[in-house]
Every structure is written in structure tokens, then in C-alpha cells.
Design a protein that fits this description.
The complex is a heterodimer of chains A (516) and B (280). Chain A contains 16 helices and 22 strands. With 516 residues, chain A is an alpha/beta fold. The chains are: A alpha/beta (516), B mainly beta (280).
Chain lengths: 516, 280
């Protein structure tokens, strides 16, 4: 069995003969060049450059660019090979001369080594001047599998073979387990590739194991060095006198560090994704499904109700503040809104429409006047604030009117509203004005009633808008409640009371004798 | 040798340019002799140029092929004593063009006994069987322009050789060197030239079936021939032959060292006998 690659890594004194080539086939096309050899021992070898990939015995082993110097050199080699047969052909392939440029290329080296390995035949136990090589191979395919299938392992092998004691003979085993029996003394160095080595006896030289297991029971002794690559070691009190070298240790450490880093990154990403998922569920986002999906309408509806109630509370407190500091102003505004709602709403619309132009015009006028610039600086932020206060004042006044109206009505749940208590009227009115919103939120909880809730929201929105316009208009008409548009005293209730008053016959009868 | 190498390099380096719908590939195959005894050799080639020679150098065969790999695939099978060479169709229709057509250059082992079967389609063939040790020969072509010569005597005795040509321009020279007991020639349409020169070592029977075309028999002086003709509307130029009954014989037929009996079936053609020098 040929072991050409061993010849490449061993000292060059290993004797190698050329194999007899029985048949050859050379095939070329614009994108492919192939050499196929059949040997007299029945084995075969194929190397093919195919559209950028190098195949050795059908296994992808490297790459090149179609038309590059390597491709041309290989085709030239094939051209020479056409005219040659057997020995001359084998010599040509074994010593493929390449340019200096190609010598640097990994792919060119691969091809050269594969060609040489295919045609060289190393004799077993060939005696040479400097040491002898004994070779044993487990299976026919193991050698080229090792050569082609694992370039990384070849690199480790080369490193492991460096520094071997050159004075000693070598014993090489490929893909077969080896046992040095107890009491046996091996005077050579042992190289084991792709299989296990158990040493119960003694090895005077070095031991190299690549891709297997080294086992040293108590009786096992290695006088030289043990050089391991991609190998497990079982040291059961055995002895390695020359020291132990793990050639791939640094690579292993680096890989372990890399693995740890990757693990950490994955953990972090999972943590982030899980957090996002929980936050998304808590926000009740509508994107995608979560476990909260069936409860979203209820939560949303209840949340809406609570939100409106809080708004009522806030507005009520604001209104209470207005009553406290400017009660009469509120009364005047409320009276105007009650007596002339239509007029107030028109004024409110007009005022709303003219808000921004007035704001900007006045600011410009003040700025142009130069001396009004400080006023303009104050005007710009203050005007919106004043407008907001005016709207709130108007809204609160109208809400109180609404509360008083509800108090007079016989509607359910309005009995608690006390007309004589402005705060009570205010809160009642605010609840009345926001009733449409509250009902809409409640209705949104129930499936299939979404349309009605939308309708209620629209009604509530329109009501709020008109109330705000009425209030704002009333504020404008009364100059913020400074001017009384209508008297506070209203005779109508007095007349109504007088008309409806029950006549007290006893009182009437006692005080008024018939006039005679 | 250097020239051979340079030629081979040039051969491999200059790959035919891809024609429209074609993908040309060049293949060079060879196999060493390996104690081979008698062989059964089949060569099959559809369309292109064919050359066949003998080769020494310890080779069983050497074959150079140019072919369209989309339509054909090379064949080189050696099993037992059976050797099959050439190309096989991939099943598509064969487009016959003059430009970029295929090529088969075949060399077979000199001196190895073989029964040779050549099957060609539309080819231009240049075949020299010199040096081949033939125990049998069959050659069939379709539409072809073929030139077959046996410039060296076959060292073995051949029981039968047959040539079958369809629409062909077919020339066989030095049939005497075949060393065959029987030679059969079947030609459809075309021009056939049969040269009976060479070194005859035995008497032989030659059967000729000729369709529409012309047949020229080039007979060396001193060779005894007897021509029996069964033809229809076929003109025979029997200059130098003597008609005896329903056969035509050469004047020295009775005294000739070797006699050839020719059975000729022809239709719609012409047959002519041309006498050549004894050394041809």
C-alpha cells in the first residue's frame, strides 16, 4: 500500500519506487481537466480540476480559478502526460515541476503531493542508511482518506513528526490499533494515526499519536517524548520520561474560549427576547398573540372608565378652584351660557377660529413696535395659557349648569346631585357630560358591540366640543366673567313658584274678612 | 520524442471552442498490455473523422477523442478479453456538421491477436490495418468516405472479413494482406474501389453485393480471378477477362499461384476491372 504522504513528512531517506501505471485517461474541456490513472495492483487515482474546485478521488480538496496559472500549469502537465506511459508518466507526475509562483500556492502543493503520493510506492521495512521505516496500514482506503479528507490532521501530523529522534527507526501504523505487550521492548519510535496505542511494555523512542487514544497502564514506559494531536490520553501510572506535548492544546483553549463567548451571547439574546415578549404582553400591544390577548378588551374598557373618572375628578378640582377664587365670574359665565347657548356657541366658534391669527398677529405687531418686544416675548407663551384657562372656565361653568339641570331632572342616579351645592352640581354635570365616554368604554368590553362604543365615543366627543365652545363663547361674551350679560335674579322661577303655590286657606281666610 | 511531447501539449492546450449548443471535450486514453491473449475489439463511432493504426510501445490501445460531451460520452471498457472503444450517444439526435465535428484517433496493439469489429456512422475514415494480428474483421459504415488499407500482411489467418458500406465512397486496398479465407463486401450507394493487391497466401472467396453505384476491381497481374456476375442493369467492363460460360476469368487463372473467386451481385451500376502491377 502506497504511503507517499509519509514520504513527504518523513526524512527524505525513505526509499520509494514508482508504481506501474496500467491505464490512463486524460480529459479536458474549457472548464475541466482530469487525469485518471489505473495501476497494475488494481487501485485507481483521479484528480480533476472542475470549474474552480479541485477533486482528488472524487473528494473536494481545494479551489482554483479557471484559467489561472495553476489551471494552465496543470493542463500543460496533462499535455505532457498524453505522450507518456507507465514509468515515464509516473516520473513526470512524481516530480511535477512548478514555477516559483505556484510553489507558494496551497492548492498547487496539494495537487503535487497528491500526484506524487499516487505514483510512489514505499517499500515496507526498506533499509536505508539513516534509520528504517516500517509501515502498516489498516485498510486500503485509509491512507488517501487521511491525505485528502483531513488536511488539518495532516498539519498536526507534520508538527508532531518534527523533532522525532532521527537516529531511531520508525514504526508507522495507520488506522489500526496497536498494543505493545507487557515485557515487549520496541527500539523504534512509533507513529499511530487515526487509531489507538496501548503501551504495556517499553518504547525506547518517541511516540506520536494523531487522532486516537494513547493508553499507558502501570507497566508502560515511553523513554522518549509523547507528542499528541487530537488524541485522548489515559495515563494509568504509566511513565513518559521525555515529557508529554499536546500539539493542539492552544487551539483547544482558544476554541473553548470561543465556545464560552458564543454561549454567553446566546444567553444574553434569549434574555433580551424574553424581556421584550413580557413587556409587549404587559403593554397589551396588538402585535401578535400573547397570553393576555383574551383579556385585552376588558382591561382596555376598565382602563378607559378609570381614565374618564380621573379626568372628571381633575376637572372638578379645577372647577372648585375657580369657584373659590372667582365664584362670581363663574356665575356670570354660567348665566350667559344658560340664557344664550346659541349665541355663546357662535361666539365660541368665531373665537376658536381667530385664536391663532390673533396670537400671531399680536405677537408680530408687538415685535414690530420694538418697544413691544418684551411684551411679545411674554405674549407668545401666555396667550395659549390664557386661552386654556378661558376654555376650562367656560367648560366648568357649563358643566355646573348641566349638573343643575340633571338635579332637576328625574333621571336615575341623579338624586345625589344637590343644586344648591355648586360643587355637587359641578361633579354631577361633569359625570353627565362624560357619560357617553363611560358608556362607550363599558360597551367596548363586550364582543360584537364595538360599533356602539364607537358611536358613543363620537357622541361624547361632539358633546364635549360643543360644551367647550359654549363655555368659551360665554367667557368671551362676559369678558371672562367680568361683565354681566344677564341678571342673576331670574323672575321666572319666582313666577313659576307663585303660580304653582298652594293657597293657604287658613292664612288667607284669617287675614282677609269679606269687605262690607 | 520531444516533438511528440510538444504535439501532445499543443493538443491538450488547444481545446476546441464551444460551438453553439455543443460542449467539446478532448480525451486521451491508453492502456498497457498486460499479458493479453486473443482480444475481441469493438470500436464504435458515430460521426466525425476516424483514423486507425497499429501501435507498439507496449500499449494495448491508445485513443484520442474529440467529441461533443452534450451528445456523446467516451467508451473505453476492458473486461476479460473484450475491449470496447469509441463514443456512445447520450440519446440526443446527432447533428452532422463539417465545422467542429468529432475526431477519433485510435491505435491498437500490434501483434496481439484480435477479432476487430468497426462500426462507424457518418465518418471520414482513414484506416490502416498494418501490423494488426487479425483473426476476424467486420467493418460497417453508414454515410462515409472511407479508405482502408492493409499495408502489411496480417500475420494470422483470418477466416472471414466483411465490409459493409451504406452511402459510401469506399476504398479498400491490398486485400491480399488480410490473409482471409473469405471476404464479403456489401455496398449500398456509392463508389467502391477494391484493391486485390498485397501478398496473397491462400485462395479466397470474395462476395460483393453492390447497389447503386460504381465498382472498380483493381486486380494485380498474376492473380487468378474468376468473376461470377449476377446483376441487373449493370455494365461490366471486363477488359482483360475471358468470358467462359457465365463467368469471367483472368487469362492465367489456371496457372495462378492463388485464385480468387468473386461472386458479384450488382444492380444499377457499373463494374470495371483495372489491372495493376504485381507489386501493388
Amino acid at each position: 500500500m502506497t504511503l507517499g504522504f509519509i514520504a513527504l513528512t518523513l526524512p527524505s531517506d525513505a526509499q520509494a519506487q514508482l508504481r506501474e501505471i496500467l491505464a490512463k485517461s486524460i480529459s479536458v474541456s474549457p472548464s475541466e481537466a482530469e487525469l485518471d490513472l489505473r495501476f497494475r495492483d488494481g487501485s485507481a487515482f483521479t484528480i480533476r480540476l472542475d470549474d474552480g474546485t479541485i477533486f482528488v478521488d472524487g473528494v473536494s480538496s481545494g479551489s482554483y480559478t479557471v484559467g489561472d496559472p495553476l489551471d494552465e500549469a496543470f493542463r500543460n502537465l496533462l499535455g505532457q502526460a498524453v505522450a507518456l506511459e507507465d514509468g515515464a508518466l509516473a516520473e513526470l507526475l512524481a516530480s511535477w515541476s512548478r514555477s516559483a509562483e505556484l510553489e507558494e500556492l496551497e492548492s498547487a502543493r496539494l495537487i503535487a503531493e497528491a500526484l506524487e503520493a499516487s505514483v510512489r510506492d514505499i517499500d515496507e521495512d526498506a533499509d536505508v542508511d539513516q534509520g528504517a521505516v516500517s509501515v502498516s496500514v489498516g485498510t486500503e482506503s485509509s491512507l488517501l482518506e487521511l491525505l485528502v479528507g483531513s488536511l488539518g490532521r495532516l498539519g498536526a501530523l507534520e508538527e508532531a513528526m518534527e523533532g522525532l529522534d532521527q537516529e531511531l527507526r520508525l514504526r508507522i501504523h495507520v488506522d489500526e490499533d496497536v498494543t505493545i505487550e507487557s515485557g515487549e521492548v520496541v527500539s523504534r519510535s512509533i507513529v499511530v494515526i487515526g487509531s489507538d496505542l496501548r503501551i504495556e511494555g517499553e518504547v525506547l523512542g518517541d511516540v506520536v499519536v494523531v487522532g486516537g487514544t494513547l493508553e499507558l497502564p502501570e507497566s508502560g514506559i515511553v523513554h522518549g517524548e509523547a507528542r499528541l494531536a487530537d488524541t485522548r490520553i489515559l495515563l494509568n501510572d504509566g511513565e513518559i520520561r521525555g515529557g508529554l506535548t499536546d500539539l493542539l492544546e492552544s487551539e483547544r483553549i482558544m476554541r473553548s474560549g470561543l465556545r464560552e463567548r458564543i454561549r454567553e451571547e446566546v444567553r444574553e439574546e434569549l434574555r433580551r427576547d424574553l424581556g421584550n415578549e413580557i413587556r409587549s404582553a404587559a403593554r397589551l400591544d396588538d402585535d401578535g398573540f400573547s397570553i393576555m390577548t383574551p383579556f385585552r378588551p376588558v382591561i382596555r374598557g376598565v382602563g378607559g372608565v378609570v381614565e374618564k373618572l380621573i379626568m372628571v375628578l381633575v376637572l372638578g378640582l379645577i372647577g372648585a378652584g375657580f369657584f373659590a377664587v372667582a365664584g362670581e365670574n363663574v356665575d356670570r359665565v354660567a348665566e350667559t351660557a344658560r340664557h344664550a347657548p346659541g349665541r355663546a356657541v357662535m361666539v365660541g366658534f368665531a373665537g376658536t377660529f381667530l385664536l391663532i391669527p390673533i396670537w400671531l398677529f399680536a405677537a408680530a405687531a408687538l415685535a414690530i413696535s420694538i418697544i413691544g418686544i418684551p411684551l411679545a416675548i411674554a405674549w407668545l407663551p401666555l396667550f395659549p395659557v390664557v386661552v386654556a384657562l378661558a376654555v376650562l372656565l367656560g367648560y366648568v361653568a357649563v358643566a355646573r349648569n348641566a349638573g343643575e339641570w340633571l338635579s332637576d331632572s328625574s333621571w336615575p342616579w341623579t338624586g345625589w346631585i344637590r343644586k344648591e351645592n355648586p360643587i355637587s352640581s359641578l361633579f354631577g354635570g361633569l359625570l353627565g357630560l362624560t357619560f357617553a365616554f363611560l358608556a362607550g368604554h363599558v360597551m367596548s368590553i363586550v364582543p360584537l358591540l364595538g360599533v356602539f362604543s364607537i358611536l358613543l365615543f363620537v357622541i361624547g366627543g361632539l358633546l364635549t366640543f360643543f360644551v367647550a365652545q359654549i363655555g368659551f363663547g360665554a367667557v368671551l361674551l362676559t369678558w371672562g366673567g367680568q361683565r354681566r350679560e344677564y341678571d342673576a335674579y331670574d323672575a321666572d322661577p319666582g313666577w313659576a313658584q307663585a303660580v304653582q303655590a298652594d293657597v293657604d286657606e287658613a292664612t288667607f281666610g284669617a287675614e282677609s274678612a269679606p269687605m262690607t | 520524442m520531444r516533438k511528440v511531447i510538444l504535439l501532445a501539449v499543443a493538443t491538450i492546450a488547444t481545446i476546441p471552442v464551444e460551438a453553439h449548443g455543443q460542449a467539446w471535450r478532448r480525451v486521451a486514453m491508453s492502456r498497457q498490455l498486460d499479458g493479453n491473449d486473443e482480444l475481441d475489439v469493438q470500436v464504435q463511432y458515430g460521426a466525425g473523422r476516424v483514423t486507425l493504426r497499429s501501435v507498439d510501445e507496449g500499449l494495448l490501445y491508445r485513443m484520442n477523442l474529440d467529441y461533443d460531451e452534450e451528445r456523446f460520452e467516451p467508451v473505453a471498457e476492458f473486461t476479460g478479453n473484450r475491449l470496447v472503444l469509441g463514443v456512445d450517444s447520450r440519446g440526443r439526435s446527432t447533428r452532422i456538421t463539417n465545422r467542429g465535428s468529432g475526431k477519433l484517433e485510435l491505435e491498437l496493439a500490434r501483434g496481439v491477436p484480435m477479432d476487430l469489429d468497426l462500426s462507424f456512422g457518418a465518418v471520414k475514415a482513414d484506416i490502416d490495418l498494418a501490423g494488426l494480428a487479425l483473426t476476424g474483421l467486420e467493418l460497417s459504415t453508414g454515410a462515409s468516405q472511407s479508405s482502408i488499407s492493409i499495408s502489411e500482411p496480417n500475420p494470422l489467418t483470418m477466416r472471414a472479413a466483411s465490409f459493409e458500406a451504406g452511402a459510401a465512397d469506399f476504398t479498400v486496398t491490398t486485400l491480399g494482406n488480410l490473409n482471409a479465407e473469405r471476404i464479403d463486401i456489401e455496398a449500398g450507394v456509392g463508389s467502391v474501389v477494391l484493391g486485390f493487391g498485397g501478398r496473397w497466401r491462400r485462395d479466397a472467396r470474395v462476395g460483393i453485393d453492390m447497389g447503386l453505384g460504381s465498382l472498380e476491381l483493381r486486380v494485380p497481374e498474376g492473380l487468378g480471378i474468376r468473376l461470377r456476375k449476377d446483376s441487373f442493369l449493370t455494365a461490366l467492363d471486363s477488359e482483360g477477362l475471358i468470358k467462359r460460360g457465365d463467368v469471367y476469368e483472368s487469362p492465367d487463372y489456371d496457372d495462378a499461384a492463388y485464385r480468387i473467386e468473386i461472386d458479384l451481385n450488382a444492380a444499377f451500376g457499373s463494374v470495371s476491372v483495372v489491372w495493376i502491377g504485381a507489386d501493388n
